[in-house]
Amino acid sequence: MFSNPLIYFVVIPVIMLLGIYLCRNMAQIRAVAVTGSLALLALSVWLLVDYLGLRAAGADAPMLYRGDWTWFSALNIQLSVGVDGISIAMLLLSSIILLTGSFASWKINPLPKEFFLWLILLSIGVFGFFISIDLFTMFMFYEVALIPMYLLIGIWGTGRKEYSAMKLTLMLMGGSAFLMLSIIGIYYNGVPEGVERTFNLLQIAQYDAIPHDWQCFLFPMAFVGFGVLGAMFPFHTWSPDGHACAPTAVSMLHAGVLMKLGGYGCFRVAIYLMPYAANELAWIFLILTGISVVYGAFSACVQTDLKYINAYSSVSHCGLVLFAILMLNTTAMTGAIMQMLSHGLMTALFFALIGMIYGRTHTRDIREMGGLMKIMPFLAVCYMIAGFASLGLPGLSGFVAEMTIFVGSFENTNTLNRVFTIIACCSIVITAVYILRVVGKLLLGPVYDKHHEELTDATWWERTSTVTLILCVAAIGCFPNFFANLIRTTFSPEIFKVLGM
Amino acid sequence: MEPTIPILILCLPLLGFLVLGLLGPKMSHKAAGWYGILSMGATMVLAYITACTYFFSGAPEFIEGGVRLQHVVFNQDWLNFYKELTIRIGFLLDPISALLLVVITTISFCVHLYSLGYMEGEKGFQRYYAFLQLFSFSMLGLVVATNIFQMYIFWELVGASSYLLIGFYYQRPSAVSASKKAFIVTRFADLGFLIGILILSYFTGTFNFTDFTGTVLANGSSVNDLVTPLNVVASFGGATFMGCSLLTWALVLIFMGGMGKSAMLPLHIWLPDAMEGPTPVSALIHAATMVVAGVYLVARLFPLYLMEEAALTFITVVGAITAFYAAVVACTQIDIKRVLAFSTISQIAFMMVSLGVARPEIHEGLGYMASMFHLFTHAMFKALLFLGAGALIHAVHSNDYTAMGGLRKYMPVTHITFLIGCLAIAGIPPFSGFFSKDEILSACYENSFVWGAWMSMVAGLTAFYMFRLYYLIFWWDEPDYGHHKPHDAPWMMSLPLIFLALVSCCCGFLHFGKFVTWNGEPYDIHINWTGVAIPSIIIAVLAIALATVMYRKKNDLPAKFAKASCGLWTAAHNRFYWDEIYLFITHKIIFNGICRPIAWFDRHIIDGTMDGLAWCAQRLSVTIRPLQSGNVHSYVYVYLFGALLLGGVTAAVVLL
User: From B173, which residue of chain A is nearest by alpha-carbon distance?
Assistant: First the structure.
């Protein structure tokens, strides 16, 4: 079992948990958190390099580094692991955000030890989710990632934290209920007669045995189940409240990684296993996600709380992820995954910066701030770069992801798809409006509050955190073909064969 | 051609941006300024070498049988979508890109040098130079684009760097809102551009200019050498949408992107406000380079536009209306930079009209050549005028002509160079503007008398408002300048002025048609003296004479005129209320009519439903809670009742 490198994505966080449990002061906690996340980052980078090597050497299995260990034989539940380019991209994203999140919570107060314990427990769920290919264990890790959120927001949050924590958890749990149903449905219908039932994604996809009407019943449930986490309209309202109340690192991890679980799950479970239903019912969700894209952007235009603005912008950007997945063609899906990466990084950057600004000014209301560029130029410049990434400036990640999505979506000849693609394109203008509104109000112009003039610029750990994220955003933006190829090679041709594309 | 020099042309400014952006705060003003100037100077030399090689070397890759070819120097894959649809970053050398390379680097270098004096001691001096370098990089990348998506990429970068430069004085609220406006308006236009690209690329399966226009094929680097404009039309297969062919839609949408950047009506509103930026920036971006991007875009896709008469007519109409509108408004502005801004809009519209009326069957594409010629001459004399305006503003510390007057005595260099600029734009021979404007007017007249007459009228207005400005600044009445009399600017500011003035004097004699034509074949320029040139000179002289009468000495003629115009003057002074209309649309309709209701809907209806569900669950649990009272007595009754009920039901089922 321990000869498989993937298992260490779960083992390292477990060791970190133990380490933090034994820590006695803040310095030790930081040391453990940073060392552990660096180890995870190193592991994911190594995995990326090794994976590309294997692919170059001609490994053509859909998933590499496969391993299965029986957990509960009566129901044939296994701990099955395996990764393809998409999962590796997601693992890389998660470890980067965990690292920068640790830096961003350098001075967390109160109960630093408990905070990190829960944060790392959450990351176990995230990493576990991305490496598993067994539906049951996948679901288990999914739940592991959701529950700590309740405590992290409820205890370390700000504002109406109990309400938001409760709302977020209940809504996501509601999604899980649908998901659970759909997973059980897949389990019972996923194999042909006389074959042992399985939760294994690859096997189910290979059998392609889910009857058509079952697909049409299960697909919406699976899509909505994951879609709730992907902030799909109209199940997105946990996102603004939840993000607004969560502490910095939690917002970063949640918007940066956890919301990606939604998109990833929609692709990996809903569409991969039930392509017929996806093809037939995509239009319903296309409308919903298309609405998400513009609706989120319009809502963001009038918010006054920085975190609300960013949360609604996440609704818009994550809507674009689901929108592109539903286009059911390689280009758009590649774009969707790139958008997941891009949004993960840039929204983490946004939340990190908002946390840092809030830590200094003690307000997140843009009406009470102004001219921060003069006071804290470093943070302000970073915020501006994040803003430019968000509104799709070439050279940063947002542009390549959005353009891949738009070009890919336009490849669909269906009129409905075309119309919604054009509607989604409109979001680039609205995004520019709300980003520049914030930048103009918050960073530029005269200093609003004279008390702010004594504030200091970023500390070294804040600089580490933001610079890392900016470098990643720029890397995707400048060398998109590397990431696009990494993702594209994994779209197993068989699902498109099924769809006749 | 070896790719080293072209790569350096793109990399030097980018490197300059990174160095000045990252290390700038550690540099002294002088070091940063000179680094920027040298970097731009080197780029300029390299661009000259490239352009000269292209035009004069006569190598078979550039010219074949007297026809200039498009040559792809390098073309690197950047992002692959599907099949042949790939974004590449490359370097395309053809007559117009070589021309623009020269124009951009020259103006940019002049502005770099000029800024050393103009921006002296400004806070954020290094940042300013970093942004100038970024802008030059984006603009150079735009003109050498080998495919329409590369153009879009740099198009966006140009927009962003222009945002940064307009908002350079970021503590001034007016600068912040002007930069925001510029970005959003051009972004809106880019939406059209993007959709146009999507349509065009979907049907043709390619982004490459060489495939669209199909004249290149020198080194075989084009992917699919069978696609020509005719094939592009064929690939659309006669698809139509709302009565127009889809290709027309695509081209009009792409032109919309150009309307945004080139400030055509109704997307012109950002340009006058963009004058909030430092004046050299206005000279660089809002006179000579960025605003001609729209013209360049149309010129780039010109063979495609030729396939769709409707799109060209649309361009002509938009251009003609804009030219007239901007010229009228320019007659009434007080801020000298705004006069120049509106004059820019009007002149860019001239170029657009010229492209719009160009038809190879009528006059061998004269309009295209004239448009590019005017782009070249206009870049020089408009940069000259802006830099001159900068020197004036530097001297009197105000943008309004009301604070100026009689300056010819104090600032002789600025006076002479500004006068040359005015004569050039008014179209007086032998200054450069005369030659290019004459070609444009010829092209208009040959297309139809209506366009010719209309544009002649606008040309007359041009001469009038430029000389109005000239007289109000340099003659008129002298205000009280106090102890510090205005004086000419230091040499770094005067040198570019003199240089550009010299260029404006002579570049009209260039045999432009030998270098730049729509299909690469040389075109012989001949001036139609009797038909077009003499009448337009007469019109210009009359307009100047009128301006002389009205503005040379202080008198109350202008005030009387304004009063007698029954509101026209006020309306023009307020730019015909376009800004108010936009303010109404954005604030009242979009902000209050869409965004707020959506935000309200989200908070109260969608979120309310979720809260309502939670409330229902809670009510339900409160309602049924008494059942679990812990009171054994009541449990027994319920038990008894249930048992009886079950018994009864069983009995009923069994017996019946």
Answer: A445
